[in-house]
Every structure is written in C-alpha cells, then in structure tokens.
Amino acid sequence: MRIDILTILPKLFDGPFSDSILKRAQEKGRVYIHLHNIRDYSTDKHKNVDDYQYGGGAGMVMRIEPIAACIDQLKAERTYDEIIYMTPDGELLEQGTSNQLSLKGNLMILCGHYKGVDDRIRQHYITKEISIGSYVLSGGELAAAVLVDSIIRLIPGVLNDETSALTDSFQDQLLSPPVYTRPPVYKGWSVPDVLLSGNSQEIDRWREDQALERTKSRRPDLLD
Length: 224
Ligand code: 6GU
What we know:
- Strand 3 and strand 4 form a beta hairpin.
- The chain is built from eight helices and nine strands.
- The protein has helices at 14-17, 20-27, 64-77, 95-101, 119-124, 141-152, 193-196, 200-218; strands at 2-7, 32-37, 50-52, 60-62, 82-92, 106-111, 128-131, 185-186, 189-190.
- The strands form three sheets. The chain has a five-stranded parallel beta sheet. A two-stranded antiparallel sheet has the order 3-4.
- It folds into two domains: 2-152, Alpha/beta knot, CATH 3.40.1280; 169-223, tRNA(m1g37)methyltransferase, domain 2 (Trp Operon Repressor, Chain A, Orthogonal Bundle), CATH 1.10.1270.20.
- The chain is of the alpha/beta class and 224 residues long.
- The chain is elongated and about 70 Å long.
- The chain binds 6-chloroguanine.
C-alpha cells in the first residue's frame, strides 16, 4: 500500500511513524508513506497557503491552488482509490472504515488547518471525509496519524500472531476481555482462578462472558 499525506506540518508525523509497528511495516515494505508539504506547492512570493475567507469572518482558509497543484501532480503519477480529507465534520471513523481502507492500494490523505480548506477542494477532489471523534483538534495531522495507524496494522503481514488484529476490541463488535500476567497474586490481588486452570474450554467461555459483560456495561451501543 502507498499512502500520500498532504500537510503544512510534515514534522508532526516524524514521531508516530518512526517506532514500533508502523516503523516495521515500512521497513518490511508493506506500506510506503510519502509526506508532501503543501507550502512547497505555493507559487506566491511568501509561500502563503492560507487567505481571508470570502464574505468576511474570523479565521483563515487554506487556499485552493497549492493543494490542487499537489493533488494534480500525484494523480498524474498514479490512480488513487480514495482521496481523504480529515475534518471534524466528516464521517466518524469506525473499525469497518479502517478494515475497508486496509484493502486499498493507493490512498491520499489531506490534512486541514485553520477554518478548513476552500470548499472547491472538497467538491472536486475529495472522495471521503473522515473525523476521528466529536471534538476539535488544531489540525488534521493527529487525526490522520490515528487513521493511518488503524489502517496499517490491518495490512496482511504487518502484525504477527502475538499481536493479531483478529482479537482486537471492535473487530467483532465486542470489547476485549480483561488480561493478566505474572505474578498470580500481587498485594493480595489475585488473577481469576479460571485463567490458571489450564482448561482452555473454560478459559474461552470465561473470556466470551467477560467480553459480553464489558460491552454491555461500557458500550451497549455496540450490541444494538
Ligand atoms: Cl479529522 N480534524 C480536526 N481538526 N479535528 C478533529 C478531527 C479531524 N476529528 C475529530 N476532531
């Protein structure tokens, strides 16, 4: 998979993509992430990427030309399965969205700032608009990092058996059961006996029960 990210703050991605699973996925060649600084596509003398909004009002708008120039160049090089815009008014990111996107070949992700991008970008280039939750972030970058993480870990060969995505919360509309490791007793707090029983059938049943209980009490909406 190839992911192109359009941003005015490429440095924000240095951290999240350079460790652990996302780093390994890139080293293994399962995903190629390319960062594009929208400012590099600005042709005016101050490399401006934003401007006042028509009609007045506080807040700057990201200009159409630099973004369009960057998208046009990338689209001339390859076909994109989706051109995604990260925005608080997009569709809420759910596991199913990430599952679908993990099957694609080429994704482009545009990160907005200020009051957002000139709406003509959304009308003429964007194929999908995604929000990661009902709160406002300073820009789309952290949201894009969340989206990319959720997608990459689903690409075949990225996770090993130990970290398999199949047992994740949400993958079957259930939260995960509680987990424990050594020691069996700490400050008098014991690990549930069943987990030490060696009876794999009972352990499986206990985990299913716990997953259902957790989902009922914490996220009953998932069971609807
Ligand atoms: Cl995708 N962008 C911004 N700026 N804020 C958000 C968001 C995205 N998703 C939730 N809040």
